[in-house]
Structure formats: C-alpha cells, structure tokens
Amino acid sequence: MSPRKHHATPESAVEHVHDAFGTAEWWRTAVIYQVYPRSFADSDGDGNGDLGGIRNRLAYLHDLGVDAIWISPFYPSPQADGGYDVADHRDVDPMYGTLADADDLIAAAHALGIRVIIDIVPNHTSDEHPWFQAALAAGPGSPERARYWFVDSPGVPNNWPSEFGGPAWTQVADGQWYLHLFDRKQPDLNWENPEVREMFAGTLRFWLDRGVDGFRIDVAHHLVKAPGLSDVDADWDAYNRGALPTNAVPFADQDGVHDIYRQWRALLDSYPGERAMVAEAWVTPHDRLARYVRADEFQQAFNFDYMRATWDADALRAQIRTTLRNADSVGAPATWVLSNHDVIRHATRLVRADPTMAPWILEATEPRPDTGLGLRRARAATALMLALPGSSYLYQGEELGLREVIELPAKARTDPDFLRGGGHRLGRDGCRVPIPWTKDAPAFGFNDTGASWLPQPADFGDYAVDRQRGRDGSTLELYRSLLAVRRQRQLGNGSLALVDLRPDVVALDVTNDRGTTRIVLNLGSAPWPIPASARVLVASTDGVTDLLPTDCAVWLTD
Ligand code: NOJ
Ligand code: MG
Predict the structure, then answer these.
(1) Which residue from 301, 304, 227, 292 is spatially nearest to 253, judged by alpha carbons?
(2) CA spacing 20 to 30 A to 360: which of 215, 337, 339, 344?
C-alpha cells in the first residue's frame, strides 16, 4: 500500500437525516434478489429457464449473500407479456415446472435461510384466463363481463393509451370495448366487483399456505380507476419523465387502492411468520408513495424515484434525504433499486445520452453507450445503494455487471412494448437475456443444450460466473464483499447523516452499534483524497488506497 499523503479532513458539516429502526423484522433490511425465471437457469434444456433451474442455483445465491428472492411470474400464461399475462393464478406453467416444483423450491430456499417472494398480478388477467373467455361468451350486460371493464360506444372508448403504445381499448365481435392499460391480451379487471376481490384474497391464501414469505404486487397503483373514465389531458413526455404527480391521470394512484391493500395486510398478518408485500407502484412524489407503506398497508414499496436519479451528487443526495424522510414519516423502511426486468440495465442506463428519459424507454435511435464507463458507474452506484439503511433489490445478472443487450435482432424480440410500438421503442428484452454461468459451455451454461429463448451476445461469456468467481476485482466478488460487509456492519439498520465533503462528492455516515461506516462516492472530475486515518473496507474499483477516483465509491471506517 502506498503511504498516505493526506491528513484527516477537518470536521465537515453534517446533516442528520434518519434514525435507526427500533424493530428488526426481516423486510426492514433484506437484500432481495429478483429472479426472472425464463432467463435465470434452464434445467431441462428447452431454452427457457425454469423452477428446477432456480433450485439448482440456490447455492450460488446463498454464497452471494442475499436474504430473499423475488421470482417474477411463473404461472400458466400465453407469455404475451413475459408471464405478466396470467391465465391461472394458482398453478405453474408447464414451461417452468409443476406445483410440486414450486413447493420443492420454497422448501429448498428456506433450508438455506433464503426467503421467497412471488409476484401477484391483480390489475389484469390474460385474455386466455377462463374469466375473460367466459366474459366473451356471456355477452354484454352479463355478470361475467362485469369482472372487467366492458363498455359501449358512444363516449367510450376514451383517449387512454396502452402503456405499450396504441389505444387502451379493444373492440370485441358484438361491438363492446374492453379496457387494457397494457397489451390487448391483458384485460383490466374491475376492482369494484367483489368477485375480483374474493378471487385475489383466495390466491394470496393459496400461496401463503404453500409457505411463501410474501408478494410483489404488480402495478399496485393502477387497480382503481376514477369514476367516469374521463379523458386524460396530461403531457405524456413530462409524465413519463416523472415530472408530474402520478395521479395526474385518472387510472393511477387513486385513493381507493388503499382499501384493497389494508385488507391484504390484515390477511398476511393472520399468518404466522413475518409475511410481507412490496408495492410495484410507479408513484411520485415521495409523499404519495409513502401512503402505500403506512402501518396497515404494504411493508415496502419500490423506490423508483431513486432509480431515476441522474448521475449527479445533488440529485442523489436529494433522493436519499427525501426517501428516508418520507419513509420515516410512516415508520416504513426505505427501499432502493437500480435495475429490474422492466428497465435498461444500470450498467448501460447510467451512461445513456438523455439521463432524464424514462428508464423503461429504450429508443431505437439512441447512441450505444460506453460499456467500460457504464460498468464503472454501475459498480459505484451499487456500492452506494448497498450501504443505505433499509432494503435493497438486486436484479439477476447485475452482480455480473451485465449490460443491456441493445443489439438484439428485431425477429428475436418478444416484448409488446416493441411489438406494439412500431419499432420506435426497442422494449425490455435486452435486460432479459439469459444469464451466463460458464464461459466455455453451451448457452454459457444456461443449460446443457445451447438453446436460449433470446440470443446471448458473444461477450456475455466474459461476464460468466466461472470467469468472475474468486477473481479479485471482478464485479461478482465486489457484490459478495459488499453484501458480506453490509451484514457484518448491519448497514441495513443504522442512523444516516449526509456529510458535506465537497459539492460533487456524496458522503454519508451510517452509524449503529457496529460503529460508523462512511460511504463516499466521487461524482466530480478531481480525485477525492482519502484521509490517512481511514481504513478502506471495500471500494468499487480495485486498488483504491489514498485517492478516490471519479465514478468510484468507497466504504471507510476509522
Ligand atoms: C409491471 C411489470 O413489471 C411489467 O413487466 C409488466 O409488463 C407490467 N407490470 C404489466 O403487468
Ligand atoms: Mg427449461
């Protein structure tokens, strides 16, 4: 190690933001790893990942050091939207296995101390769900149609757009129209109908009885629509950039959704163990999101405003401060997330040309970002995130530093966001490419046959687990170190203070009975001198001892 030339900086201004929690439920601090099952590991060689594949790789997840997994939908589905078009909520798609495989997976995860969260999709069903088929057969005015949003002209369809492009209404043979905020194969359910409520309460019980630890609730902010189904007059570009409140449109963040979640929370609380639910609610601003995590609703909500923060010290500080203050105001843990199956992988997103663009929109004309710089920033961003008090989410493959696969050929793409969008938006397939496990193996070890439902690019071999495991400086070893130190120092629960070191440096102290950990992320162009008195616990780039370079983060202690 080179001798330290720098001396401790004088005491800096400190802004106290957050106190540690007094209680220790697992979901307050858990690191939760998202498995996108079709792309994780394929045990039967058909080119689609499956439940057996996840089970075979549990030891890897245990070794990585995560507390829980969240598995995206594995239910019977025509796969019009990657399984978020559910045809039967209480079974497993044969592509993924059987209910017995689900039981085995839950048991095997629990044996390793890994909790299991599954995905519930309550806003819509597949059009191949028996309920929608019955609605089509029964005709206008029937109780079967009353489970969905069937309407007659005139007055409707209104001007609501589908999230994936085109109108949110499709006409059926008898002339009525049905609402689908997503693909036309995903009709919206009508949550004013008690049968819908009963069906989902039964579904939650079905899976709670099988031992799951909780649920991720898909588009939790969409279930209730404002009465009258009036036209939208929002500036969509501003809306998609998060510049308008979510409830500026009549089908998002309506107050009525909270009644549903209060009932679900009571149901979860009637089960032994700390069963938990997390809201996938793209709700802004933070005080509106905090309403989802009041004491009798969700335990957690994804923090997408943090995900959307630009690579800028002021923006990150503001998000950390606002997140913690709003979560604290209702006694909920903050959550943190950088990647998932819907957004451009953060190793690519953090260097995109227009950083305020919605993270799920990948335009066909966007310039290809710099992979090296992207990975460097991604590692630093993760090092900051995993030090923050609360619960963090990881998305499969980010621990390998995977990039977005922008170059997928059009004929390989499956995402309705691409298929409905006329080719302007490339969609989300590029963050769903199967995981590389072994460089010199068929499909990079995704299976034994070499089949892969999306093609893997050649450079994925260099990211393979076997190339990174045990190699100093690899992204996988960085994640393992961050998770190990986070556990040793119990960083999920501590007080947090923002420290004023330099305007272009984010610095914070997390303090608990294990001591104080100082996290420093350098977003400026000049290196930041690490004080001679500090010990480096972990750094996002190798070889950091006395100077912290641009786009690097470090965890320090005295
Ligand atoms: C959010 C899911 O994460 C996304 O993948 C899906 O397309 C929509 N909800 C519709 O279910
Ligand atoms: Mg398979």
Answers:
(1) 292
(2) 215
